[in-house]
Amino acid sequence: MARHDETDEGILEEAMDWFLRLREPCRTDGDEHDFRHWLDRSPTHRDAWMKACRTWELMGETTPVHDYLRQPSATQAGGIALRRRRAWGVGVALALAACLVLALAGPSLFLRYRADFETATAELRKITLEDGSTVELGAASAIDTDFADGARHVTLLAGEAFFDVRHDPARPFVVTAGGVKVTVLGTAFDVHMRSEDTTVELLRGVVGLAVGDASHAFELSPGDTVTVDRGSGRITRSRLAPEDMAAWRDGRLFVNDVTIASVVRELQRYHPAWISVPSGDLANRRVTGLYSLSDPDRALEALVQPYGGKVHRISPYLRVLALF
User: Fold this and answer.
1) In the chain, which segments carry CATH 3.55.50.30?
2) Which among 273, 14, 235, 4 has a CA at the least distance from the CA of 121?
3) Would strands 274-276 and 318-322 be described as parallel, antiparallel, or unpaired?
4) pLDDT grade, residue 214 (50/70/90)?
5) Buried b (16+ CB within 10 A) or exposed e, 203-236
6) Which residue, 131, 167, 219, 259, is most buried by CB atoms nearer than 10 A?
């Protein structure tokens, strides 16, 4: 049995399950009766519930849904307030559900409709295309391919992909990603598309790169890396060691002077839990480093510890990064 000053992982998972269950509009009086029975089983159960409520607060709500259930019972005099809180909780749950459907299901359904090949969270996949070229897809990535009428065209819809293109002078191989167009005959390169920019890293050969309406067009040589800001169109060129290119294929994430928030977005593709950074101060800190994709929890800790941050492992399904 867990000591009173500790929260057992299994009980904490139960608390999170209750938290989600009690937000459901279809919950019954029996559900709340069962919850109260669960809550009163031990101080450890109450501690776990308090932690679940604090998690809600960390996510930006001043009052957690069913915060009144922190108390063992409700008085009859508080019945009206109780019903109001229930109605408020239902409204929040419905609003959250709608947002989650749009934010999560929407893009996923869109990708499933367009993508010829895709990967799930933490999944890597190697694909051989019709012309013999190969594509290695990073986690949570998707591509659409077009080889009709002699074309060799791939669109990166999400995530990251490493291309090893079979040489064919008569058929240029074209990759488009977020307003960036890469044209090659035969080479090896990585394309990484994020919400704010697109990066191309050239390992071998020569590629032509065009941005937007092709008003910015130039060639890359081996070792070149180019990042194009999707908002401003600003182009940043630098050099990168061959062993650091497409490091994700070896389970490594190399970053240089980027925000913690952007690193978290990359690690999210390799972590089954939802990762949140509610503190803007922490999210905007800049880092340079090499992180493990095979152990994303360890990577999160290494990411925030230099700034006094901590990874709160709320459950197998949620991580919160905070400055306490």
Assistant:
1) 251-324
2) 273
3) parallel
4) low
5) bebebbbbbeeeeeeeebebebbbbbebeeeeee
6) 259
pLDDT tens digits along 42-77: 888 888 888 777 766 655 543 444 544 544 444 433
Q: How far is it between the farthest Cα atoms of the chain?
A: 82
**For all residues of the chain together, what is the average pLDDT?**
81
- Tell me how far apart the alpha carbons of residues 291 and 301 are, in angstroms, rounded to a whole number: 10
pLDDT digits (tens, 9 = 90+) for 23-45: 665 667 788 888 888 888 888 88
Report d(CA 113, CA 129) in Å as an integer.
Answer: 19
Torsion of CA 104, 106, 107, 108, to 10 degrees: 80
Q: Residue 64: what pLDDT?
A: 43
> Per CATH, the architecture of 117-243 is what?
Sandwich (2.60)
Q: Where in the chain is the domain with CATH 2.60.120.1440?
A: 117-243
- CA pair distance 52, 18, nearest whole angstrom: 9
Indicate the burial class of 80 (C-beta count within 10 angstroms; 0-12, 13-18, 19 or more). exposed
Flag the least confident range among 151-165, 213-227, 254-268.
213-227
* Dihedral over Cα of 137, 140, 146, 151: its sign: negative
Distance CA 16, CA 314 (A): 8
Whole-prediction pTM value?
Answer: 0.69
Closest by Cα among 154, 116, 117 to 138: 117
